[in-house]
Write a structure and sequence with these properties.
Low-confidence stretches: none
Number of domains: 1
CATH class: Alpha Beta
Order of helices and strands: EHEEEEEH
Largest sheet: 4 strands, mixed
CATH architecture: Alpha-Beta Complex
Number of helices: 2
Shape: globular
Strand order of the largest sheet: 1-2-3-4
Helix content: 10-25%
Distance between the termini: 44 Å
Length: 103
Amino acid sequence: MQPRGDDYAAKHPTVAEVFLLVEVSDTTLKHDLETKASIYAKAGILEYWVLNVINCQLHVFRDPSINRYQVESILGNGDIATSIAFPDIVVPVGSIAIPLTIP
């Protein structure tokens, strides 16, 4: 499927147009891992990633069912993430999960 020509300015993408949904999370981590994951699974989003910037982890949710994902993997600094929709793209978790430092 190709992106729409209007760059989604006219309306939000449909579920069929969402190949990978990524959330960057710090203070809303519990909400993102529980509430949002349930909503996205129920909607049929095939793959949902939550980047936990506090613990430098990537939560990968796959295989949506009625109200939750059947598969959740937690990847850390030495791990590699790949998306179902983009299998040729390799993402070293350590390159995106940089420790958050608060002055």
